[in-house]
Amino acid sequence: MALNSLGRLLVLLAAAYSGAEANNLFRSPRQAPGSIFTVGNGEQCLGSDRSTGGVCLSRNQCNTQGGKAIGFCGVFATCCSLNACDVRTNTKVAIFINPPLNRESSGLECSYNVEINNNNVCQMRIDFETFNLAPPTTVEPVENVTQRPGFTCRNDIFQVTNLQANSDFLPPLCGDNNGQHLYVRVNASTNSRSIRINFKIADRNTQPNLPQATWKIKVTQLECFNTLGKYRDGLFEAITSSLPSTPLSSSADRDEYLIAPPGCLQYYPDRSGSFESFNYNRGAGPYIANLAYSTCFKRTPDVCGVKLTSASFEMAYRDEQNLYLDTDCQVNPVTQGAPQSEDYLFIPEAETADGLRGTKFCGSSASNQIIASTPPGPLSVHFRSDNLVTDDIPESGYRFNYNVLNNCYLKT
Ligand SMILES: *[C@@H]1O[C@H](CO)[C@@H](O)[C@H](O)[C@H]1NC(C)=O
Ligand SMILES: *[C@@H]1O[C@H](CO)[C@@H](O)[C@H](O)[C@H]1NC(C)=O
With a 6 A CB cut-off, is 5 part of the ligand 1 pocket? Predict the structure, then answer.
């Protein structure tokens, strides 16, 4: 019996192996010399005038991304200026940089249409290598009124549109989001086969006090599991890891590490790192109103939780006389028609180093804390902000370092 099922397993693996090889052959034209991985390294470079910045790409990559060659770099590559404002591309990795903007720039809209590169693409990861836009704003204070609408993006606005799943909601972003990223789900069978990334930049003539807008974003098209990849979790992992490296070298296999679980706007596949709220702005914030999204971590078979060490944490609260946990962060039952400040970070099955347990953190409850989150399911935290700010209650946001845990009896 055992022998019989082993035999079937081997047949299955052999089939998967040859399928992956066929895939590789099929893919090889795209990975030919001249791709971003072999010639241009995607690093920043200087044009032949020694002052204009560009990105090191192959000549072909530069052309298909609507760029302009301004010099040489790397191994037979061109220093490519990618700051065209209306770009349509389908390259596996695309980089978009703001056009020259200065204090005199009179408003601008830049749209990047990213078309699905091939039918295996299921997600796009958008990395904000540089992202400095005007900060979110609220209305001017009114005498004797302590509450105002939350901070939203009214001047410069970044948004991804033409999304292909109704359940996906991407909030407009602005402010300082250097180093942040987000994921977008795509579906190759839909008609449009593209997403639109849009930067709407406010007129600096009429608002000369706004900071200069700069961005460099990288869009990576991620291909979902091939046949072999599907079997790689759990039991099959040990077996496939001993296979020769050939079937695992397709781009889908390289992408697998970066594929986010469903429903995650942000995903951190590394075992340790840090994450922060949008427009954390080096601790000054404020975070953006009306956001609700998940930040997820990779749960490999050895992992039982995630440890969060806060560098700073400052969210709104409703009442000064409490622990800023759970029901202190959210009114229960719902009071219809009464605006309530209900901002929080949801950390499932959390326990602080001080022994406090809870799931919703607001106010300063996660400040200077080490928190172990050990849920039985996916590893994630959920951010939620309402559309309200209250005078003297700061909403600067948070930054955490994280480490996945493989011993959940040790809390710190
Ligand atoms: C604000 O409140 C003070 C004290 O109650 C009152 O004298 C003043 O008229 C109020 N101002 C406005 C604009 O309502
Ligand atoms: C992709 O879109 C097609 C056509 O709208 C739909 O039938 C299919 O279920 C979608 N696939 C996924 C994974 O959402």
Answer: no
Whether ligand 1 lies within 6 angstroms of the CB of 142 is answered as no
SS3 per-residue string spanning the chain: CHHHHHHHHHHHHHHHHHHHHHHHHHHHHHHCCCCCCCCCCCCEEECCCCCCEEEEECHHHHHHCCCEEEEEECCCEEEEECCCCEEEECCCEEEEECCCCCCCCEEEEEEEEEECCCCCEEEEEEEEEEEECCCCECCCCCCCCCEECCCECCCCEEEEECCCCCCCCCCCECCECCCCEEEEECCCCCCCCEEEEEEEEEECCCCCCCCCCEEEEEEEEEECCCHHHHCCCCHHHHHHHCCCCHHHCCHHHHHHCCCCCCCCCEEECCCEEEEECCCCHHHCCCCCCCCEEEEEECCCCCCCEEEEEEEEEECCCCCCCCCCEHHHCCCCCCCCCCCCCCCEEEEEEEEECCCCEEEEECCCCCCCCEEEECCCCCEEEEEECCCCEECCCCCCEEEEEEEEECCCCCCC
Query: Distance, CA 42 to ligand 1 centroid (Å)?
Result: 59
191 lines ligand 2 (CB under 6 A): no
Q: Is 335 in the pocket of ligand 2 (CB under 6 A)?
A: no
Residue spans in the chain of domains classed CATH 2.60.120.290: 83-224, 272-405
Confidence of residue 45 (pLDDT cuts 50, 70, 90): confident
144 lines ligand 1 (CB under 6 A): yes
Is 145 touching ligand 1 by the criterion CB < 6 Å? no
For the segment 357-386, what is each residue's pLDDT rounded down to a tens digit? 999 999 999 999 999 999 999 999 999 999
Closest ligand to 190 CA?
Answer: 2
The CATH architecture assigned to 83-224 reads: Sandwich (2.60)
Pocket test for ligand 1, best of 140, 143, 146 (most atoms within 8 A of CB): 143
Ligand nearest to the CA of 141: 1
**Ligand closest to the CA atom of residue 146:** 1
142 C-alpha vs ligand 1 centroid, how far in Å? Answer: 11
Looking at domain 272-405, its CATH superfamily turns out to be Spermadhesin, CUB domain (2.60.120.290)
Average model confidence (pLDDT) across the chain? 82
